[in-house]
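seq:
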Amino acid sequence: MDCATAREAISATLDGEEPGVDAAALDQHVARCPACLAWQDDAAAVTRLARLEPALPSPDVTGRVLDHLPSPPAKVDWPRWTLVFAAIAQLSLVVSQLFLPQPMAGGMTVQPGSHLEHEAVAFNFAIAVALLWAASRPRQARSQLPVLLSFTVVLVALSLFDVLGDRVGWQRLVSHVPLLLGVLCALLVARRDGRRPWPGARAKSGQAVDAATDGGRYETAGPGARSRERQPPAARRNVA
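struct:
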């Protein structure tokens, strides 16, 4: 038995673990090796001091932890309910465009059945689905923002252009108010719930994580790193 194996077995024995070697062979090696005998005495003294040493007061990190926790949702989650209301308003607009004439500026109306109306119906129906998705899955509300924001920005810009050209009436413009309100609430929900971690989420491989207590850093093993998870406890110890 070499000294490295003996000292690893001694360390495991002091910690109440299986040494992984024959106890009689370990005793024989320590008896004839003064260096390992001295190492055993020193390790036993250090172990005893560590067990008898009073625990130092740890820093209070309660405030830091509470500051990073998301605020509890209100009893009435009005942004999500507003999203549902905006989605219902969009669906009602879809029904009206399918079956009712649409008033325009100058007393003109657009009759249902044209292809342009059908395209508007398809867009409004898709927007209603996006609003409902954001309301039902608030943690995924961010995925709907590109569609909702792009549609809203283009719609607002073209509506201003039509108002200046006297090509649209106020009745038509008022129908867009629920959409604007829904997009605003989608932004609020995405900003609020998008920061909450998923249950069981794990750090990516190779990603360093800051320790909350002492500012240290712990790194996860990379994909090609040798796993030490299933090795016996004695094999995971560094030989002193």
